[in-house]
Structure formats: C-alpha cells, structure tokens
C-alpha cells in the first residue's frame, strides 16, 4: 500500500501507508516508483510478521 503524489514539476513522491515513511521523492517515472516501492523493507510489516510468529510460538508452547 503506497500513496503516490505528483509534484508541480511532474515528478512523483511515494509514501508507504503502513509505516508512513517517504520512500522516495522527485522520482521521474512510475516505473522507477515501482522499483523503489518493491525495495522498501517496511519496518511495520516486519514487526507485524515477527509478532505473529511469536504468538504462534507462544500458542504452541502452552499446549
Ligand atoms: Zn513501510
């Protein structure tokens, strides 16, 4: 989930809607945006994933 905005000079900014981090600004093409977004390692998602794993782990341990 990313929020893209266009600047007055035609370049783009993109922001991650999960961690609200600006991934890139003044990007000239949407193709470049795709690449930059693909390379974003989201700390929010990583944390979420870790938390889920730990919960599963805990659930198993209590059985
Ligand atoms: Zn993110």
Taking the sheet with the most strands, its summary is: 3 strands, antiparallel
Helix content: 40-55%
Mean pLDDT figure: 93
Order of helices and strands: EEEHH
Observed structural traits:
63 residues; alpha+beta; three-stranded antiparallel beta sheet; 25% strand; rod-shaped; binds zinc ion
Topology:
Layout: E1 2-6, E2 12-16, E3 22-27, H1 30-38, H2 43-61
The protein binds zinc ion.
Protein described:
By secondary structure, the chain is of the alpha+beta class. The protein has one domain (2-61). Helices cover 44% and strands 25% of the residues. The chain is built from two helices and three strands, in the order βββαα. A three-stranded antiparallel β-sheet has the order 1-2-3, covered by helices on one side. Strand 2 and strand 3 form a beta hairpin. It is rod-shaped. The mean pLDDT is 93. It binds zinc ion (ZN). Zinc ion is lined by residues 16, 18-19, 21, 40, 42, 44.
């Amino acid at each position: 989930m990313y929020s893209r905005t266009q600047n007055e000079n035609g370049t783009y900014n993109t922001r991650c809607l999960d961690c609200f981090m600006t991934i890139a600004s003044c990007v000239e093409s949407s193709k470049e945006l795709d690449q930059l977004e693909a390379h974003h390692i989201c700390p929010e998602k990583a944390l979420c994933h870790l938390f889920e794993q730990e919960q599963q782990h805990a659930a198993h341990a209590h059985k």
